[in-house]
Request: fold
Amino acid sequence: MNHFKDHFSALAERYAAYRPVYPNELAATLAQASPQQHHAWDCACGTGQMSVLLAEHFSTVSATDASEAQIKQVRQRHNIRYSVAAAEQSGLPDNSADLITVAQAAHWFDLSAFYREATRVARPNALIALISYATLTLDNHPEADALVQRFYHQDLAAHWPPERRHVENAYGDLPFPFEPVMLSPPAMRADWRLPELLGYLSTWSAVRQTVRATGQNPLARLAGELTQICSPDTVLKVSWPLNIRAGKIQK
Reply:
């Protein structure tokens, strides 16, 4: 198996509990744009957030992730086959997938090797979709949002992996050797209270890297500040800018 940059295995349980849920409309949009709905490959599936949505639209879903810890936390469905495999060496059959998705993970890949693997696995004219979402916004609480933005842009600035810039650029700066397919992403929103927000922030790779580098958890300060302005009953309206870079695999 290829070496991969593993930022999340140690956080697999938190990842499963706190990462946001993709909107159902996202899977419907991708299925409609796919040539058929027989088989989807959800690459770098994590704990299956995207896989379970695709399972509502495709006969079978192959969901792979290089992290065994993530696969142990997956959300089971009768038509999803989970396996531990690198993005560049999936082990899936040739010419088998109508749709290939990568949600919030393509920036970690050896893209040239992954694109070769995707082309091998894809059926002719299959859809490939690189999905990403950047920094959240707290739409109904400007004061709390300002603290979260400071946390992201200032407190953690020195500890984000360099690949993070690709997410901020909506993957527009990644090579993408496929015929573009323009898809409009649906809104991605959640209603959270403070424990859910802090749980999500704890899954950020830069938080873990800051702890490693400094021996201190940067969330402690932010949690104290947010507790002063958010009561236990405060509902925070959270949104993320969701992006889809899609293309047709011609072969």
About this structure: Residues 135-164+194-234 form a domain with the Arc Repressor Mutant, subunit A fold (CATH 1.10.10.2560). The first strand starts at residue 39 and ends at 43.
